[in-house]
Amino acid sequence: MPLSPNEVIAGLRTTLGDAAIITDRADMPAYLNEPRKRFHTPAVAIAMPPDVPALQALCRWANGAGVPLIPQSGNTGLVGGQVPLRGDEVVVSLKRLDKVRAVNAAAGNMTLEAGVILEEAHRIAEEAGAMFPLWLASQGSARIGGLLSSNAGGVQVLAFGNARELTLGVEAVLADGRLYQGLNALKKDNTGYDLKDLLVGAEGTLGFITAATLKLFPQPEAHETAIVNVESPAQALELFYRLRDRTGSRLTAFEIMPRFGIDLQLKHGLLATDPTASPSPWYALAEVNRMQGTPDGALQSGLEDAITAGLVSDAVVASSETERVTMWAAREQMSEVQSKEGASIKHDVSVPIAAVPQLIAEGSEAVIKAIPGIRPCAFGHLGDGNIHFNLSQPVGADRAAFMAEEPLANAVIYEVVQRLGGSVSAEHGIGQLKTGLLKQVKDPVALEMMRAIKQALDPNGILNPGKVLG
Hints:
Layout: H1 5-16, E1 21-22, H2 29-32, E2 45-47, H3 52-65, E3 69-72, E4 90-93, E5 100-104, E6 109-113, H4 118-127, E7 130-131, H5 144-149, H6 157-160, E8 167-173, E9 179-182, H7 195-199, E10 208-215, E11 217-218, E12 222-230, H8 233-247, E13 251-258, H9 259-267, E14 282-290, H10 298-308, E15 315-317, H11 321-332, H12 334-338, E16 344-345, E17 348-350, H13 356-370, E18 375-381, E19 386-392, H14 399-403, H15 406-419, H16 435-441, H17 444-457
Helix pairs in contact: 1-3, 8-10, 13-15
């Protein structure tokens, strides 16, 4: 028989002590209110183990008692993977596991615990004279454990890969409390299955990632950043090809943004001034790292050639770090500003890079036809094919009535994505939001393999139950 809430709390007190648990509902909102405010299920308690042995003890007790545990790091996930689904769970916050275990910039790696905030990881790397290139809008609150568990992407995937590519090894506590000691700094290790890659991206359903050895890279001397006027996503793609051929791996980011999103930010005061050179239907945001010993001006030279070729009409190159920060703010605030215009329906999708223009064109046309007045705001990582296909409600529309159209909008966008050979979840994961969708689009054999792995590592189903596989 399942334990009652009082029995669960008593077990937590015995296992962790009063100082490591929260039981008062008034003190729980920070752990239950996820960014999009879509999920509102309470938890029995919040557990905050102070170290790895305490987490192991918690898992041993929970596994024996059948108490479901929800791994949580910074609570920045966008698909509800880090918050309750059923109401009988204990949220396990790893924020107290925040130690720096090792930094070796010369060897190109550092080992951090799961609770280290991404912004702090950047600082640690920079103080050692290196760079950790995982960069995203929530870096002030997102933590290493959650970033790896969701295989986070961000704006520099183009050059450095997502979280999985940036991880050399992990340490993890399994459902029964055993400790997987997979921390290493090896670039080559062909001794069987890659268990690190199994845990990274599993969204806490296979174990608690408690620490990771992460790749470090040489710190650039400077960044060359520009916002470029383009007439269409197809033109932006052609510019991307040109700049990539010219600058190679030094092209670290290439984003696409619609004028609609810039106008909203100016309207609602998220931007004090327009960071673009002049009005244009679309913009590309490009950034090139200038490494030690390499000449300056590679991006500007490439843009000048594109202008001469008639591919680009105008551009502005950042002349200071302040201008660069403003340019990136214009990109990072694209999603946030939509909430000021009312409700929005959001999609995190990817297609082959060459199909991005087709995705945006066909997706926009189809959804406008299905829901007249809807305002598409497609933006994101053109350089790796990951587009955030967001849809703002029609002007003056009723919020609830618009959100009732979400299943229709989803069907329209996902049809185009699948037809183009894409993915319905590029970097945000599955969580509890997309479990039904996963069953519809995933290869049945792949689902069977995933269920077999889950059964092998978590036979009692205590780790993040109901997430990913449903």
